[in-house]
Amino acid sequence: MPEPDETRSRVTLIVGFVAGVSPDKWARVWAERMPHVELRLRPVAADAAVASLRAGNEMVFARLPLPPRDPTTGDQTSGDEASELHSIPLWEETPVVIAPKDHPVKLFDAVTLADLESENMLEGEDDATLDLVAAGVGLARMPQAVFRANGRRDVIARPISDAEPTRIALVWPAGATDEVLDEFIGVVRGRTVQSSRGAAPEPAKAQPKKGSSPQKSGKTGGKVQKGRPAKGRGQVNRGASRRGR
After folding, report:
1. In the predicted model, is pLDDT for residue 29 greater than 50?
2. What is the CATH number of domain 4-93+165-209?
3. Cα 170 from Cα 45, distance rounded (Å)
4. What's the CA gap between 16 and 50, in Å, rounded?
5. Average pLDDT, the chain
6. Where in the chain is the domain with CATH 3.40.190.10?
7. Strands (E), the chain
8. What is the pTM of this model?
9. Are 95 and 166 in contact, with CB atoms under 8 Å apart?
10. Which of 105, 139, 143, 223 has its Cα between 20 and 30 A from that of 200?
């Protein structure tokens, strides 16, 4: 662990995080391990995570794949820009569909993409989108962790069993390296004070790697049986027409 005299010029570390990420556990460890460097945590929009690295954030918990367009400038995020970032993939997130409480999907433990083909799918993951879902205008798709963070009880969520999961990664500029950043990487990775530092991180990619098996996040309970109605419920027509139209 860096001693205070090694980081005397560093009094803060600013880290952004997207919705669905709870950095509290790392903040507690940081306060114990690095009390001389204040950790400032800033929530950021998912599509502005990379841009936040040019607006004061030194690191950010971002959702992969990285957004294809910078919302502040409208510029396309290029492969060259992605190669100028370091990232550490952390966990995958379960995709869920959000529906009104009386929608037929409530009878199932999980749905498939084919089940949703006839539905009016809304864009967005914020409260305004969930308000529209609750009003019966359409359905929405988002990571399970984002839905849970919203704490809404007027809508329901079901896993989409065959949808590609999203992944959370810790991202920072490739040229930014110092003892404080390295120590935070160690905290996130779970390194102890006595453990040695790990290997160099891999470059950020616009798409998550195929075939990897990172730790799952946001899943609870036993295995879901696709296409089976929940216990005690009758069969429903899964090709229900669009709701709210």
Report:
1. yes
2. 3.40.190.10
3. 15
4. 10
5. 79
6. 4-93+165-209, 95-164
7. 12-17, 38-43, 59-64, 85-93, 95-100, 121-122, 139-143, 155-159, 166-173, 202-203, 215-217
8. 0.69
9. yes
10. 143
